[in-house]
Amino acid sequence: MSLANSGVVGRPPPSLTFALAATEARLGCFKNMKTKLKSLMAATVAGVLLTGCCSTHVTRWEYKVVAAPRWQTGLSPSQLYEAQQQFLNGLGKDGWILVSQNEGVVYYLRRPVR
Known about the structure:
Layout: H1 14-53, E1 61-67, H2 77-93, E2 97-102, E3 106-112
Antiparallel strand pairs: 1-3, 2-3
């Protein structure tokens, strides 16, 4: 039956209306399924990430206390900062991380146990 034969111009026949309603219901079901699938995937990804972040691995550290070298007297503040930076960068290349310092005289460092 075509639209021209349905008797009413501009309205689809009842069988076509039923078919459209059934198709829309199926599409709605698929949209709902897509939403559930997205939620399930998000929960899975979050679970994997949290499991990796919250592992029971504990880093063991070794510590080092270093007295600063005797700086040359008469250094300008910028020259002193440069000398300290070179000193600390040398320790950093060996894996040491600065934890604290005492007025630039004593440096407290740590690194993961090797």
